[in-house]
Every structure is written in structure tokens, then in C-alpha cells.
Amino acid sequence: MLYFFIKRLIIICLTTALPTIAWAADSLIDAPSTKKIMHYILRDHATFEKVTPELTRRTVQAFLEEMDPHKTYLIKSSIEPYLTPSPEKLAQISKRIDNQDFSDFYHLLSKMQTSIEKMNQLDKKTYTSEGEELECFSALKTLEWGDNYQQLAQREAKIRALQIKSAEAFEIDTAERMSQRLDKRQRSMESKITTQSKKAFHAKAHELFLKSFAKSLDDHSSYFTAWEAEQYALQVQQHLFGIGAQLRDDLQGFTLVHVLENSPVQKHGEIKAGDMIIAVDHTPVVGMDIEEAVQLIRGPKGSHVHLTLLRNSPEGQKKLEADIIRDLINLKETRFHHSLIPFGNGNIAYLRLFSFYQDSESSSELDIQAALKAALKETNPLKGVLLDLRSNGGGLLEQSVKVAGLFLKKGIVASIKDSQNRLEHRRTFRAHPIWDGPLVILTDRASASAAEIVAGSLKDYGRAIIAGDEHTWGKGSYQVFTFNPMQSSKANPLGEYKVTRGLYYTVSGNSPQLLGIKSDIEIPSGLKATDLGESLVKHPIENQTIEPNFVDNLEDVHPFYRATMKRQYKHNRQHKLTVYDNLIPVLKSNSKKRIESNPDFQNFLSVIYKENLTKKDLQSYGLNDLAKEECIDILKDLILLEVEQKKAA
């Protein structure tokens, strides 16, 4: 018997472990295990407590879309009873699910198997991209289920033509190579469904069911296979144990397209970008999915992996053998970047944070703190800070609180409220901020979650000016994740889940859910013309508010600790500031004039609404980061205005 410890990582912070849960040792998930996982997901979810007819309807629709997302396999007549099921049929399906009977989903998966066989019997070379109107990828969202396999073959040809056209437009790949990649991907997907034993077939249906069930609760709840859970943890932590190279599937092997600085591959000295891996530990990887190859390459710190590579040279291909010692790889290039920008007799610190991460060796808070302290030690004084949170999708909530705390005195930064209406406050206890001077935060419509906590609370306290798109993404929910890679490097073979537990709120009592954080000064980005944001997802959770918490009475702290905390918390409290209130109109006016008179910015604004952008379009307004440049100018104005304000006082 395998014991499955659910270790909850609030996409946020580590919390106490859930009770031990027993699972069968077989990694093929069975019906009882599927039902058990359902139970735990519902127990933790913010709004759903049990399976309802509406949840069943959503799950069935999601199951169909999970199997056939582009509607290129299943014909309408084969799944008709499940497209608009009656209340009676939904009740029957719900009852069967409750009894651990997933026969409806076995039936649908068998229909998918049949459809794959039917589609592969067609001579697809006879079908062209003409016919059905499908001029851009956004049109995929409105496709209906097809009437026959010939129509689906035509649709598949059209989608493939769009994919190849996109690859060529951005010079990603040639049409021939892209077509080969698409063929390989398609064969891999089909083989996972068609070539299975009965037990594996049921396990695949259970996996697809749990994925569909979780995403039907809301758009941030998910079920992961073990591999997917480990990959998701990498995204949050931004580190891994491996060789430190970015790979590209080149059909005959996996090409190293980028070698990370100070990585095991770089330290080896004889391997370089452009080399192609053809075997790992003498196991050929040609024909493998990239996920399978990466699993072979990664492993525990200090362990050895043997690579067989090919290198192209004027004399022909050369075969290389290399023994690499795996190590911890911090993905610094996708974590954090900082630099100093000269201004007057001092500097501006530019801090680009890509996610909110934490591991045993570093964190977003510690990396930013080190950068700020280094800037403060420079001979030329630090004049202001630009914190760039564009396209920062979030990460660990606790890290967002600590990052905000670098710019605040003691006080509440964020609050979380779960389905049981339990309210917990997240505080910073720093008596003196690392930086209490001019601060501008640059955001865009892809800034979400933990990034919105930092931007929202610093704006609430009057400590920062927000510049960027009109508003951020609008993700005000928080999730718990059952896989904690800081306690175990391997996910449970039966999978892990991430479930929405509730909403979070900034110190003003407002949640960014659906609304986002509004900017004080708008700087349009390339995302301005796109349909992005929480309000556009399929199953959003409604926005709520709580009372403001600028005054903290420690009501969520246990009475036993409250008196002690009061004494520690008494002095150096962060109060709401108004120093920027009178400056924002001036800054906004100056920014508007600069943007209107900047030809590159005007060219940029003219192309972002084009339906089919090309690489040439993206270069028509120059190669500079226009939003960053404008935000630096805003910060320079702020620094000068604050100097004038202090003189006047």
C-alpha cells in the first residue's frame, strides 16, 4: 500500500499537511481512487461542496473538449446524447459517478478511439484548407461539432495551414519541418488513446475525467498527472535538477538551443548550443516525446547522466559522448533581472520580477532585497525604483507579501478568506522598509495573482504609482496545491491537484477578482488589443469585498499570542500616505504628451490591432521596450516633483 501525503502549497505558502491518505500502489488510477480524489477536491473548493447537475453538465462538456479540443475527431451523431443532456440524464450520470461508475466516460473515450481509426482511414492528402471559414486561431472557439469525417478532415487541413502559416510568419520553422512536428505530435496523442489495455484505457478515462471535473469547478482548479505536477512546480519555483540546457525537438533528436550560465553543461566545457542529443544513458531518444526525453535527462542532484550527441561541422557530423553531473538549476533568466539606470547624480534601480518563487537557496524577496541593498551601497545615490511586474502570472502568495514588505513598514498586506468564511491576514513585520523613496510599478494585462497583491497593496498604502495597461488580469482567487517539491522531488504517481480555496484581498478590502488593479497612469502594451483577463474565463468566481484593514486589531491571531504580537507591532506601523495624490495628474499629463509625440509609440499603437501580425509588423516601431522607457520617464518626473514638493514644504 502506498501512502499519499497531501502537502498543501497555497500557491502562496506552505501550510500544515493534510491527513495521510492511502492509495493503491499501482500508478494506473482506478475508479475508487478517482472518486476519492473527487471527494478531496470538493472538500477544499471555495464554492462547490457536492456534485450538482450543473457541475455534471460542465464536466461532460469539458471531457469532450479535453479529448478533442479542436473538434477534428468526434462527429456530432456519435456524441449527440451528451451534447445537451436532459435533467434526467444528468441526474443518472451524477448518480453513476457517486457510485464510482464512470461508464459514461468510458463510452465517450471509446467513441474517440473509433473516431481516430475512422480519420486515419481517410486519404487526408485529398483535403485542402479551403471551405470552412477559419481565418485565425480565435475562430476555433466557435467551432461546432462536425457532421461527418470528411468535414473534419477539411477542418484539420485548415487548422494545420494556420499553424504552418504562423510558424513561417514569425520565422519559427519552415513549412516542411512544422508539418513534420505536427505529424509527430498527432501520432503521439493518438497512440496514448488507441494502443491501450483495458486497464490502461480505464485509467486514461479516469485521468481525463478528473481533469474535466476540476476545470469545471473554476478555471484555476486542475488535476495533474505526476509529470504535469512536477512541471507545474517548476513553473512556481523556477528551478529544477538537471543539466541546464533548453531543448528543441528536431525529430532526429533534441537540439540544445540554449545553455544556461554556470549550468552542468556549461561547466562540462565540451558541449555547446547546436549539439543534438540522440541518446540518454545509452537509451535512444529519437522519436520520443520531448517530455519523455526530459524525464530521462533530469534526476537527483549529484547523480550522473550520460549523453550521446551529434555535432554538425564542415567535415560532417561528429559523435560526442559526455558524462554530466546533475545539479540544481535556478532559472535566473526567467526569475529576476535587475540593473541600474543613471539619472542626474544618482541611479534608478530597475527590477524585473517574472514570478514569485521560493526554494531552499533563494526567493523573490531575497533576490530583490539583495539588488536594492547593492544599489544603496553604490557611490551614486539611489533616486528611485521601477518594479516591473509585466507578464508576472503570480506564484507564492507568501512571497508577494514579503516583496511588498520591502517597501512598507509593519502592517497587513493581504487577507485570504476561504469557503468557511475564515479570514486570515498576511502581514509584514519589517520596522524599516529597504526602500521608502519614489516607487513606480509597471504592470500589464498579464500581471496576475501575487503580482496584483503587490501592486494593489502598495497602491492602497500610497507607496507606489501603478503604470501600464488600464488594468491587470483580475485573478483574486488563491489555490492550494497538493504537491510540495520542497518536501519530495517526486509527485504521487496517481496525480496531484490544485484547487481554488477562496479569494484574497488587498489592505483596502478589495479583491482584484474579475476587476484587476487599475493603473494610475495608462501606458498601452501589446496586450491592449487582446481578449485577456479573468472576466473572460469560462467559470469565474464572483468578486467580493471585506472591510478595509489599514487599522489592524489582530482579530485573526489566537488570543494566547495576541498580547505579545501587539507589543512587537506597536511602533513603526505603515499608515496610508497621500503624497502621490497631487502628483499623479501632472505625471499622467506629461506621459500622455510624450506618448502622443513619440513616432515609435504611435506606430506601435497602429499595428497592435491587426488580426494577423507578422515579425515585420512587430519591428516597425523599433526594438526598444517602449512601455519600460515611458515608465522610466514617469519615475524621473516623480523624483523631480518630489524634490520640488520637499523644497516647497
From TrEMBL:
SMART domains: PDZ (SM00228), TSPc (SM00245). Residues 1-24 form the signal peptide. The keyword Manganese does not apply. SUPFAM superfamilies: ClpP/crotonase (SSF52096), PDZ domain-like (SSF50156). Residues 233-298 form the PDZ domain. Keywords: Hydrolase, Protease, Serine protease, Signal. PROSITE patterns: PDZ (PS50106). Pfam families: PDZ, Peptidase_S41, TSP_NTD. GO terms for cellular component: outer membrane-bounded periplasmic space. CDD domains: cpPDZ_CPP-like, Peptidase_S41_CPP. InterPro entries: ClpP/crotonase-like_dom_sf (IPR029045), PDZ (IPR001478), PDZ_sf (IPR036034), Peptidase_S41A (IPR004447), Tail-specific_protease (IPR005151), TSP_N (IPR040573). One of its GO terms (biological process) is signal transduction. GO terms for molecular function: endopeptidase activity; serine-type peptidase activity. PANTHER family: CARBOXYL-TERMINAL-PROCESSING PEPTIDASE 3, CHLOROPLASTIC, TAIL-SPECIFIC PROTEASE. Belongs to the peptidase S41A family. NCBIfam families: prc. This is Tail-specific protease. The lineage of its organism: Bacteria, Candidatus Aerophobota.
